[in-house]
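Let us practice reading a record.
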Amino acid sequence: MPVASSSKSPRGHNLTARIVHDLGRAIVTEQFKGTTDFPFESELCKKYEASRPVVREAVKMLTAKGLLRQRQKVGIVVQPEAHWNLLDPDVLKWLLEREFSIDLLIDFTEIRMAIEPRASALAAHSATGPQRRNILNAIDRMFAAERGEDDALEADIAFHVSVLEASNNRFMRQFQDLTESTLRFSIRRTNAYAGVSRASAIDHKRVATAIIEGDPSRATRLMRDLIQGALDLLLTAGGHPTSCD
């Protein structure tokens, strides 16, 4: 019989992280049949060969993510999606492990539409020298990817993340995980809908040029056009009216 681990020990910490991942993924991918169909603490201790403090720490972490809640006389219950912290990196990752949903992808892209054009304007106004170099380096990588010399997905992500960073807005910077997760999930699908193998380096360079030249209104418009093109493809694929309808 294994010795019960303290949540403070290295093994306890690793076990807590494993429990959080297993249960969090199961909740978000809807493997529990109902809000009360969650294992009792004793069942979790037995399943993971873990002490009660380890299990309670994992439950506490999942509660902080909005996935669980303690109810009197009922115990631990699964929260409805409306209560989840959808900007939490773990919750985002688990969401993308669900069965594919075009509507989820549309929601992600609409959030990007609300953030990235404004981030581009702020970057055009206030990006530092190193931040501008990061944007240009990402564009260089996108052109290299077109020549088969770099990874197209990683280069595209690097561009969008570098723009958010260059906004120098502390709240917009917090959306880097959202943007990266969305792009990892969406780029290949939107490119497939568009009938191309990768995003256009030229179109991205136009945004970069507007930022480097310090033209906020042009940077806003070009970034909006870039994301709107992807959104329209998703709306069409999902049978929704597009901005042009």
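A brief commentary: Residues 203 and 226 are 7 Å apart (CA to CA).
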